Amino acid sequence: MADQDQDAQYWYNAKTGEVERGLVSPAPDRIGPFATPEEASRAYEILAERSRAWAEEEAREDDWDAGSGAP
Fold first, then answer.
1. Taking the model in full, what pTM does it have?
2. Euclidean distance between CA atoms 42 and 36, whole angstroms
3. Burial tier of 36 (Cβ tally within 10 Å: 0-12, 13-18, 19+)
4. Per-residue pLDDT for the chain (71 aa), expressed as one digit of tens each?
């Protein structure tokens, strides 16, 4: 069942710049998984968005920790 789930997902191949369905390329070359080919084609943009969101969340947590007197 897990293989079927992976076959239904899309990956961006960072080496070739192509969108692939399923586990076609070696893991070091793949970015994903994504639900649609359109999302996979925007892999770097989505990664940048997620990175910004994580950084903002960490900054909020750091601000909260600093305000609470936690080390």
1. 0.73
2. 10
3. exposed
4. 455 687 899 999 999 999 999 999 999 999 999 999 999 999 999 999 999 999 999 999 888 877 765 55
